[in-house]
Amino acid sequence: MQKGAMGWAVGLLLVIGGLNWGLVGLFNLDVVATVFGGTAALGSKVVYVLVGLAALYKLAKMVGVMK
Is the pTM above the cut of 0.85? Predict the structure, then answer.
């Protein structure tokens, strides 16, 4: 189990990403894009990149690349 601020931030970002994709799949509703003014908006891109980096970090932890 991840501890500390990094683990908390990664978990939060993965939950945000997962819920957002679930809403996109079910209702064609991209909450991140809605909040930040569209998929091309800088805020949306930052959130999407952070979610992607969180997923890569978690994957690296799961396969043992990182301790």
Answer: yes
